[in-house]
Design brief:
127 residues, mainly alpha, two-stranded parallel sheet, 2 strands
Length: 127
């Protein structure tokens, strides 16, 4: 749930950045191939200013990365895709439950307990 880079990976049960972060900048920077980079802040940003700051810092970091010099113009055509944050629902861990039939049906069950009610605003900020 963090977009920052770290020097070392982590394993389950061992957070390394107040959460679980995985190194990506070095690999991205050293790879001359055209790249699809999918990013998201995750669901565990509970306030709009925190999420917005994460996105701004990520974009600044992305702008600062020098890619390998190559004659291949495809490097300049990397694709960056923000994956929208998808909220859960109460009792989502239960087996054999039916999904909501529509978005309108779902929003009746929004709760601020997990900040699900904020996700549409998070996604709109990136749009």
């Amino acid at each position: 749930d963090q977009l920052n880079d770290v020097s070392e990976g982590t394993s389950f049960g061992t957070p390394n950045c107040f959460d679980y972060c995985y190194p990506w900048v070095t690999e991205y920077q050293s790879n001359p191939a055209r790249t699809l980079l999918v990013f998201n802040t995750g669901a565990h940003r509970y306030k709009h200013p925190l999420m917005q700051n994460d996105i701004k810092q990520f974009l600044e970091l992305l702008d600062s990365i020098d890619r390998p010099a190559t004659n291949d113009e495809s490097v300049k055509k990397d694709v960056f895709l923000f994956r929208s944050t998808v909220p859960g629902h109460k009792e989502c861990e239960k087996m054999n439950i039916e999904p909501y039939g529509s978005y309108d049906e779902y929003i009746r069950f929004w709760t601020d307990k997990y900040s699900w009610n904020n996700f549409a605003g998070y996604n709109d900020f990136v749009d």
